[in-house]
User: Fold these one by one.
Assistant:
Number 1:
Amino acid sequence: MILPDQTFTYRSPVLLVGAAPVPMPPLFTELAETLPIIAADGGVHAVLEWGRAPELVIGDMDSSGDLPADMKWLHLSGQDDTDFEKCLKRIAAPLIIGFGFLDARLDHTLAAIHALAALPHNAPILLVGTSDMLLRLRGDITFPATVGERVSIWPLGTQRFRRSRGLRWSLDGLEMAPGQLVGTSNIATGGDVEIVTDGGAGYALIRPVAAAASLLPVIMPQP
């Protein structure tokens, strides 16, 4: 079923699935039972392999193949943006959790990070890979972390930090920017990690996938 170009608005978080093959961790399998699932073009095959059917497919349809007649899809032929960007421009949700955008081809991963850097809104985007997850943020966050856990903070433009706690290397008063200063492989000291920003373009918080159980309750909107 072909749909007209439009914005799809959700009150709940949305699972967005790309084409890179990524196994779904058990914690996210539970979410897939209740949250809407949208496929970015060829990501429809990953969703079907999970035994689910996406409620919508968005993309230029160059890798989706033939779709069932009753499946809803939005065909966008432009080549100036990726399927991931096409989806982000048309999904309005309090949180998007993406699979299949951080693994496989490096250029696709870089394109996904580029798309996050270009977002005009403040809603968080969580991308989940096979080993790491990347949370795009604008603003402050506090989350629990175990002693010695890797916590990387990467700017998605010029990003200023007012203060932090719970990190071995403080962010107090720092201004980060790509090609200038980044925060690779910072380390949690135990307890809560707090990051307080002072305006800026946004940043990526990168943690191991195993830390999802401690991060999801922080970013999931309350009913």
Number 2:
Amino acid sequence: MAKKSKRPASCYKKPPKHAYTRTAKKVVKKAFVRGVPNVTIFHFDMGSSGKKYKYVVKLISKNAVQVRHNALEATRIVVNRTLQKTIGLENYHFQIRIYPHHVMRENAIISGAGADRLQTGMKHAFGKPIGKAARVKRNQAMMTIKVNTKANTEKARQAFKKIVAKLPTACAIVVEELKK
């Protein structure tokens, strides 16, 4: 049986009014959301975190949006690999500043021959959990890279430019000097 493809990001990028985050805990009371898939992001801090850095490069969202956890993982891999090759593991500290808490739901509708007998349409359209998303506010820093030299800030900017197409919003890249 073929694996079902993901819906496009445009279906989930606009944040609904309220976050849907409550998941089951080890308590007697039952929680609202069941069967939520795990987040695919394993590392939120990469590089050398114990050092003092002079510059910070921020990736800032221009709009309020939701970013899926698999998009965050794809961007994390590209940025971290680019920084390791160009700057070196000991010369940067890369952080993902957002966490995917919001549970996304999908009312799966079957299409094709004979599908009219297998579904209820919009009768019970609550939907099943299909993944998680991070809710990002307007002008919020989604990711930061700390570096020591001006030349490395340009390499960090280039790493962020590579991932802008993987995110569902327009982004700004800002370089700031850290105060001592």
Number 3:
Amino acid sequence: MSIYRVIDKLETYVYEGTWLPFGMRILSQERLVEFIEKLRSTLPDEVGRAKVIATNKDRVIRDAQEKAQQIVSEAVTAQAEAIDQTDIMRQARTTAEIVLREAEEKSRRIRQGADVYAAQILSELEARLATALGSVKKGQEALAPRAEPAALAADPLAEAAAKSKRLAFDAQADTAALESVEIK
């Protein structure tokens, strides 16, 4: 069921309520809560995803529930005090719009904060990896032969064996350096 259909049913229910003097109507609190639950269950998926991202989602939900309860309480009080029904509905809609805008803004700020945090962590990881790679290169340069002995230069088989040993050692050093980098 779409959220618009639930809103239409709620509106119809309000207009079909029992009339009282002074233009007031009697509405069932249980029925109103039922409509609110239906509205809540048909909210778009984006709202749910924003809740997952939010680190303070419990507080936002609690605030929204308190504000919703406050709106319901204000509507009941307004009926008891014989305030015009259209004024109550106008106030409830205004308050609901404000609550929705505040929730969307909080969700946007939380998403931005999560993005900034992720970018910061990735930058720190990049810096650590660059440091580790620099250490590996310095180690390789330190281990590189400075001058070939004349005997090795004359024997191609000995030269190939020495080169193979250097490559194997360099590969081990690269593996050890990457394993020593901690990702936090």
Number 4:
Amino acid sequence: MWTKQHSVVTKKVSKEQMWKLFANVNNWELWDPGIEYAKMNGKFEQGNHFILRPKGGPEIKIKIIETILNKKFVDLTEFPLAKMYGEHTFEDTKEGLRITTKMTVTGPLGFLWRKIVAEGIVKGLPSDMETQITVASKL
């Protein structure tokens, strides 16, 4: 198993604004330059899924396996012989809102999918999170 995470603390945005940003999956390409599109039918809730197409890549089905309104959601991407989990949390602190994204890869071919997908996601988290904060602060 491989796990990496990144956190940022900010007073520029609320957990409700961050939740609104992520729950609007069909507009993710407006703030995520790494994807062509994301599409979801129905509500942003546990048990649903969405389709995401990274730039230059194939469509990927991502399942939402846990949601706690305005606090946390966990998504799951299944690859051949590996699973990648993205855990996204929004926590109020005295210093501001702590936003954390934790990526975990498991399975026999986890090392391969870590190299192909997860390490790039983690590398981009600092700049991606700043963009998310900027866009969410306007919601």
